[in-house]
């Protein structure tokens, strides 16, 4: 069974530029999560989707971050404009009927 | 809000020996899940073990086992016969229902050959 796929693996941008990350969950997983992991910390949830609906986006900085999950499968997370403090690893996860979350390899974002 | 605390930023153990990583959490709920995830330098979070709060029996997965003390809100991970491949950051996490994971700060485990 294929795992959670994410791309790109690395991205370097300058502040005020925009960036987008892509995630493809494990086949059949209805719930998809985006987490932000700042160096030296545990991941923190940005947004949770159930199929193509948003369940929790309370920690998403909506003035600059947006996310969508069209057709209830793939998801895209966008940052526009990026700030220095957005430098982090962005992790995508999906969960099965047991609610166990499985993570992708992550995207390391560096904002200069 | 639920919180998870890992009081050991770093731990080290000799290869083939046993090590225990500590985790405490705070919640007013009675039904929830607890997890240990491993994050090697590759950054991918890998599930190590899962515990349902309603189960009194401690979860076990091969060399990994937990000591779940619900009243004390403690959830420690024991790694037996440590191997070089066990070296990683270990995160304890709490989840209620089909909701977000709340992670601790992590413990960096080093295995000495």
Please explain how this structure is put together:
By secondary structure, chain A is mainly β. Chain A is built from no helices and 11 strands. Chain A is globular, with a radius of gyration of 13 Å. Chain B is mainly beta and 113 residues long. Chain B has a single domain, classed as Immunoglobulin-like (Sandwich). Chain B has no helices and 12 strands. Chain B starts with a strand and ends with a strand. At the A-B interface, strand 4, strand 5, strand 9 and strand 10 of A face strand 5, strand 6 and strand 10 of B.
Summarize the structure.
Chain A is mostly beta strands and 112 residues long. Chain A contains no helices and eleven strands. The mean pLDDT of chain A is 94.
For this entry, give a set of tags:
heterodimer; A: 112 residues; mainly beta; 7-stranded mixed beta sheet; 11 strands; B: mainly beta; Immunoglobulin-like; 4-stranded antiparallel beta sheet; globular
Describe the SSE topology.
The complex is a heterodimer of chains A (112) and B (113).
Chain A lengths: L4 E3 L2 E4 L5 E6 L6 E7 L6 E7 L2 E4 L8 E4 L6 E5 L8 E8 L5 E3 L3 E5 L1
Parallel strand pairs in A: 2-11
Antiparallel strand pairs in A: 1-3, 3-8, 4-5, 4-9, 5-6, 7-8, 9-10, 9-11
Chain B lengths: L2 E3 L4 E5 L4 E3 L2 E3 L6 E7 L6 E7 L7 E2 L2 E6 L4 E6 L8 E8 L6 E2 L3 E6 L1
Parallel strand pairs in B: 2-12
Antiparallel strand pairs in B: 1-4, 3-9, 5-6, 5-10, 7-8, 8-9, 10-11, 10-12
């Amino acid at each position: 069974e294929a795992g959670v796929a994410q791309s790109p693996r690395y991205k370097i941008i300058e502040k005020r530029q925009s960036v987008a990350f892509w995630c493809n969950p494990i086949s059949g997983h209805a719930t998809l999560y985006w987490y932000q992991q700042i160096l030296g910390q545990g991941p923190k949830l940005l947004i949770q989707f159930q199929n193509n609906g948003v369940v929790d986006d309370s920690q998403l900085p909506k003035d600059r971050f947006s996310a969508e999950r069209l057709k209830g499968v793939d998801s895209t997370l966008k940052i526009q404009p990026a700030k220095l403090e957005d430098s982090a690893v962005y992790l995508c996860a999906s969960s099965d009927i047991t609610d166990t979350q499985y993570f992708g390899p992550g995207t390391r974002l560096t904002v200069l | 809000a639920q919180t998870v605390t890992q009081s050991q930023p770093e731990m080290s153990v000799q290869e083939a020996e046993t090590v225990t990583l500590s985790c405490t959490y705070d919640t007013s709920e009675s039904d929830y899940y607890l997890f240990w995830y491993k994050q090697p330098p590759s950054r991918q979070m890998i599930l190590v073990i899962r515990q349902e709060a309603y189960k009194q029996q401690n979860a076990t997965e091969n060399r990994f086992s937990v000591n779940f003390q619900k009243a004390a809100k403690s959830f420690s991970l024991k790694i037996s016969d440590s191997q070089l491949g066990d070296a990683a950051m270990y995160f304890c996490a709490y989840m209620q229902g089909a909701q977000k994971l709340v992670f601790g700060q992590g413990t960096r485990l080093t295995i000495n050959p």
